[in-house]
């Protein structure tokens, strides 16, 4: 394709390091779509003849059918997906194929293909995240009243509802989808027509190709169009953030499935066994989601480091932009599917969760709040009094729910003969009705709002 000025072809290692076809063949559909749009525009502008365009279109359609049926041939001598397809086009339609590359370079071609590919990938991820949200909302609805311990420092802090806990991840997924949508909006500009770096002397119509490919319009600067990969990095940062969220839920699933917690039972379909310990039921899927988050982050880091020192415009380093994006996409799509399946299918052990929620003086804050509300103490004083009560209970090995008015009066005399507060975990969660709070009432509202959002 470019051999005119060379006496001999590249050596074996040169060929090997140069070949991107093993991975960029994933761009085949976008590459054909880009070429079709370009050919149509060239003919409309009178740059190639209508007959040439017809031959090109028919050849590209035939190649589409071939690739679909048999895959993309991996010919290293042809370097990349652009050359492989153009070479095949030449075999199929002859001379008109050689006119396709008029007013175009692989530099704007690959930038176009990659933007199109990521746009489609974002659509897939969005669908996956929506299914994940649906699973969360369904389980949250089921468990709007179920009580579990809320933790800070992984110490029992205050009782919360399981539905509320699950809906926290709904909110995270909502922002993740929003970030991806924003990325898709910003990347939807066409590099096609930037040619190698400077634009072209042919009378091309960049708006026409942009429109044909579903872009909002052509990019404004040819150097920028062929040399930035911020859209790929943005995709990777969105993927990383999403993976971080999934990884935290995965970590919780792993903890919850362990015997000391016993908060969930993994169904058979989401468990793996041990080859030596017959009793084992391991949460491998969640562990791999946690591991994959590390790899996805690595993909992001790797492209950032590839790009950081590159002068404008195109450098071959940028061919290495694709493997991390493909890898991150594959890992993320699988992670989302795995977490969706796990959330939808684990059996929550609500009795155990409630028992742990009631341990560790988890309603001490409710007692302090009661001292403020019913007995006019300042919160800091109420905190101190409650701390002394907890200390006394601890010494007597009893929980807060069994204290008497005399116990309270022993610490704070004005409480003698008082009517005791409700320090049950049920009373605690039911009282937390502030906006965004854990009360079952609020969880039901959040679930209803989420169901509406997902239907929209
Ligand atoms: N395979 C190349 C890539 O992915 C296409 C662009 C090649 N351009 C060039 N001037 N060699 O970056």
Automatic annotation (TrEMBL):
GO molecular function: argininosuccinate lyase activity
Protein origin, superkingdom: Bacteria
EC number(s) from the headed UniProt entry: 4.3.2.1
Reaction it catalyzes: 2-(N(omega)-L-arginino)succinate = fumarate + L-arginine
Keyword entries, A-Z: Amino-acid biosynthesis, Arginine biosynthesis, Cytoplasm, Lyase
Subcellular location per the Swiss-Prot or TrEMBL entry: Cytoplasm
Pathway(s) served: Amino-acid biosynthesis; L-arginine biosynthesis; L-arginine from L-ornithine and carbamoyl phosphate: step 3/3
Record-level GO BP terms: L-arginine biosynthetic process via ornithine
Domain Fumarate lyase N-terminal: residue ranges: 12-298
Family the entry assigns: Belongs to the lyase 1 family. Argininosuccinate lyase subfamily.
Official protein name in the record: Argininosuccinate lyase
Organism: Sphingorhabdus profundilacus
Classification of source organism: Bacteria, Pseudomonadati, Pseudomonadota, Alphaproteobacteria, Sphingomonadales
Name of the gene: argH
